[in-house]
């Protein structure tokens, strides 16, 4: 007769956290957060996010990347940057821009006398929410299991043997990626939430 076995498990499933991008260029005299401005019809989620992310692109390139590539290593479609052609060349479908950068302000400048940019363009606050659920971190999934065997030894002693599997299915969920749109690694994940699968064995003698 087989007896004394117990089986346990803890399963955790949750939706990904909302995204909070770093701020855009500031406004003189205004110390609070300035949001980026959305490009109409754009999407935050990149092509790579919908397929397969390669976070080692920079390593393979010898550390010489000029910006995040939404087709390969970035989860997001990035900035439209007039002042950084190398970065912008990698953004076929940019999602937003900083409305207070000099080149963008000049485009909004009004004619003043004979000078087309004498007022340098006005400042704007931006329209992307500080925290947006439009794009979230990946869904979190984790399963832990345990098997416990109790064996009586004599009349006063109990031998307990336990096997635990942590992250039993060896799932790897990317942690929050770089959220600075000006950085060359914007949207590139640098780690995972859980480690690899682990097995843990414990023995206890109870008397």
Structure description:
The protein is built from three helices and eight strands, in the order βββααβαββββ. With 207 residues, it is mainly beta. A hairpin with a 3-residue loop joins strand 6 (140-153) and strand 7. The protein starts with a strand and ends with a strand. 19% of the residues are buried.
Count of DSSP-assigned helices: 3
SS-based structural class?
mainly beta
Q: What is the CA-based Rg, rounded?
A: 26 Å
- Summarize the main sheet: 4 strands, antiparallel
Distance between the termini: 24 Å
Mean pLDDT: 90
Q: SSE string, helix = H, strand = E?
A: EEEHHEHEEEE
Total strand segments: 8
Strand order of the largest sheet: 1-6-7-8
Task: Give a brief outline of the structure.
With 207 residues, the protein is mainly beta. The protein is 7% helix and 26% strand.
Detail the topology: elements first, then pairings.
Elements: E1 5-14, E2 18-19, E3 37-38, H1 57-60, H2 85-88, E4 96-97, H3 102-108, E5 132-136, E6 140-153, E7 157-166, E8 198-206
Antiparallel strand pairs: 1-6, 2-5, 3-4, 6-7, 7-8
What tags apply to this protein structure?
207 residues, mainly beta, 4-stranded antiparallel beta sheet, two-stranded antiparallel sheet, 8 strands
